[in-house]
Amino acid sequence: MTPLRRVLLVFGTRPEAIKMAPVIQQLQRSASRFEAIVAVTGQHREMLDQVLSLYGLAPDLDLDLMRHGQRPEEVLAQAVTGIGAAIRDLKPDAVLVQGDTTTTLAGALASFYEHVPIGHIEAGLRSDDKHAPFPEEVNRRLTTQVADMHFAPTAHARDRLLAEGVPAADVYVTGNTAVDALLAAAGIPNTPADERLASLAGGKGRFVLVTAHRRENWGVPMEAICSAVLDVLAAFDDLVVVFPVHRNPVVRDVVNRVLGANERVLLTEPLDYLTFLGMMRSATLIMSDSGGVQEEAPSLDVPVLVLRETTERPEALETGAIRLVGTTREGITRGALEVLGDPALYRRMAEAANPFGDGHAAERIVAVLEERLG
Ligand code: UD1
Ligand code: UDP
Fold this sequence. Notes:
By secondary structure, this protein is of the alpha/beta class. Helix content is 49%, strand content 15%. It folds into two domains: 5-176 and 357-373, Glycogen Phosphorylase B (Rossmann fold), CATH 3.40.50.2000; 195-350, Rossmann fold (3-Layer(aba) Sandwich). It is built from 16 helices and 13 strands. The strands form two sheets. Strands 3-2-1-4-5-6-7 form a seven-stranded parallel sheet, with helices on both faces. Helix 3 packs across helix 4. The structure holds uridine-diphosphate-N-acetylglucosamine (UD1) and uridine-5'-diphosphate. Uridine-diphosphate-N-acetylglucosamine binds next to helix 1, helix 2 and helix 3.
């Protein structure tokens, strides 16, 4: 009988948890060959716990690191040390990390120090600007340096890795597990608990869904994003805005100050994943600086205006599902007025296909683990 292979999955933030969940579930379906162990850093707390509870995931280890106003280097130092100790204790055959957060880099470095093979899910995304997204572009580049198996979501991401000299035999095009999670969630019925959200999700009224949290957007860009929201509302009488506000206090201060008093802006706590997907699906337009939202919205047929100067997801620019509108008040407002005022452009964006996956990424990742660890 083949011995069980122990796989340690390390994550710590909301988006990592959502994108890791399909891989955990796939490993659990292969329980005769794999033992899946979950270690969370707790880089996020409430926003991570929302996802853990949705999937009924009880981590085997929780470092519970989050502190308000934490700096990435503080999280990194504690997470590398904590994950390193966990690896020595648990002796996994491989460690999986996802994406580009501080936890991702910490998990990869800790495994490197312990000489344990590292699989990097969502490898090969590049903006070519080390300050945007900050510090994620550097996190994923450094993770590439120490990873042994690179799970690229698209052919484009694979080509970026090959161009940097990563051996072709270590790169696998799998699709993004975000699409696996989204397609699985689409089958779960959900009505928002909040009556106003339920009414909008039920088709009563046009609304723009907004999210913003990126560190490089703190300060002037975040003010501009909020002011642009007011400009867009002023241009369309019937429109309202739903803005689930990230828990970061730096983000909350600006959003509450600029938008808190406007009756047509509905500021909410971070929404649970199913409710958020429901709101995305019913939105007229999405304006966001999120990475995950750019990957999900094309499957939900809603155009996205990306509140950034650059994106590491050019595939969706090419299909036309997203548009980069930058981070100035004028640029964002102009972008929104163009899409909302041009039905043909709107339809082209909404109907663009999702280039990020087909819902089977986790199966491909686990198949590679079978081959590599077998
Ligand atoms: C992190 C990731 C970013 C990802 C984002 C997803 C890094 C460097 N950045 O950014 O890639 O897009 O998460 O949301 O890893 N907070 C809470 N409760 C929570 C979560 C956050 O109160 O559940 C507050 C805390 O005050 C915390 C702060 O938000 O200190 C910042 O959290 P942190 O994880 O450091 O950075 P993000 O900006 O959220
Ligand atoms: N999301 C959520 N609730 C919200 C906002 C976002 O569940 O209120 C989900 C969203 O569907 C996506 C992920 O969180 O799967 C994106 O997280 P975030 O924007 O925080 O991080 P990023 O993707 O930019 O790293």
